[in-house]
Structures are given as structure tokens and as C-alpha cells.
Amino acid sequence: MSLNQKRRVFLKGSVAAGTLGAAAGLLTPGAVLAAWNKNAFTAKGIDEAIAAADGSPTTTPSKDITIKAPDIAENGAVVPVSVATKMDGVDSITLLVEKNSTPLSAVFHLPKGTLPDVSTRVKMGKTGDVIAVVKANGKLYSARKSVKVTIGGCGG
Amino acid sequence: MAKSIKIRAKSKGGITTVKALITHPMETGLRKNKKTGKLIPAHFIQEVVCKHNGKPVINCEWGGSVSKNPYLAFKFKGGKKDDSIELSWKDNMGKSDSITAKIR
């Protein structure tokens, strides 16, 4: 148990620190892609991050977006998240973790022909919502799902 | 050094599913080294791009809150057996890697 506890504490430290703050002065990404959106990834607030990533903080909640994530995540360092929607004309899917110190986790740009259905794994500092913002036909739609992170183990 | 990526692409009914695993530490920059007490510098993938026959099918921007050894799965229309799939990533330290595979 003691070993396990130590591991939990370690995880807590590493995950709670889930920020991207050290971006200053680093190499600029290459020419293959559009420049990495530093402002969005270093934003501290949800609205701020969405605005920087998608151009506007205003999103319309939508039932057409499905977020697949566990209700309870035992290990906050690896939380599998899938986002899918039935909407047409999706340009991008933005994934945010509400309680992380810099909420923006990933932006997926989807060219025409790519289905709005992506999966990845994110780190979560503590219990909170995972937010997906879908940009379709120039409008922003969002959905959220609560994930309980039981860092302390034993059912939290 | 194309060993950092594992990729599998499968075409079925006109839709290709791509699944990829990248080996990368994904350090956020806020974790401390327990022995020295010093911060471990941030080191995470910022960009991932995947191309089908040279045409981009997904373009990702990632932050440090994507998990260690990141996983990515997505689907696109089109693509058939033996088409080429290329996936590449670039991190904040300027390192990069890419792999080319065939759709199964």
C-alpha cells in the first residue's frame, strides 16, 4: 500500500502541474504546419483558451457531440477521451480539461473528408469536466463530460 | 529513428481508421525531479500531421496535457488497401519523426 500511495502522490504532483508554461523562447515549429498556437495553449481560463484557439469564447451547447470518457478515472495521467459528432462541415475539434492550470489540451484540424471522430488520451489534474468544442460551418458548439479522478485510490 | 511511432491504418467500407501510438515523454515542464528538486524541462509534442497519399487528413496541435506516449485515432473517408499513410510529429525542442505505412 505504501508503495502505491507514493505512486499516487507522485502522479498527483505531476498531473496537477499540467501546464505548458515553459513555451517561451522555444523553437518555432516547422513549416509543415501552421504555427503552434502558443497563446491558446498557455491560456489559464477556459473562455480565454477557447477564444484563442477558435476565435470566440462563445459556444452553443449541443447534444450532437458525444464525448466518450470514463466516469471515474483511476489514473489522472492517462484518461482516454473520444469526441465524435454527427454534424457536417466540421473544421476542428478542440479538447479542453476544465481543471488543468492551462485547460487547452489538443486541437484537431480536420480537412474535408476526415470524419469528426477523434480519440486520444489526456492528463487530468483533478475531478472536473472534459470539454469538447466543435467548429462546424463557422459556428462553435460545445459539450462537456464530468470525469472523476480518484488519485487517492480506494474509490475516492 | 522512425521507431517512436506505431501506426495501423485499416480501410473498411470506404472509411479508413488510423490508430497511432507515439513514444514520447510529454513533460509538462512543471514536474520536479525528486532527487535534485529541479524542474524537469517541458518536452512535449506540439504538432502531429497525418497524410494520405500526400494529402493531409488530420492536423493536430497538442499541449503538455496530452498523456505520455500519446495515442491518436481518427477516421477519414476514402483510402484503400496499399495506399500510403504518413504520420509525423514535431515537439517543442525541435525534434521530429515520421513514419510511412500502408493501409491494410
UniProtKB/TrEMBL annotation, chain A:
It comes from the Bacteria. The keyword Signal applies. InterPro entries: SoxY, SoxY_sf, Sulphur_oxidation_SoxY, TAT_signal. Residues 1-34 form the signal peptide. The keyword Signal applies. Residues 55-154 form the Ig-like SoxY domain. Keywords: Signal. This is Thiosulfate oxidation carrier protein SoxY. It comes from Thiolapillus brandeum.
From TrEMBL, chain B:
The lineage of its organism: Bacteria, Pseudomonadati, Pseudomonadota, Gammaproteobacteria, Chromatiales. Residues 7-101 form the Sulphur oxidation protein SoxZ domain. The gene is soxZ. Pfam families: SoxZ. InterPro entries: Ig-like_fold, Ig_E-set, SoxZ, SoxZ_dom. This is Thiosulfate oxidation carrier complex protein SoxZ.
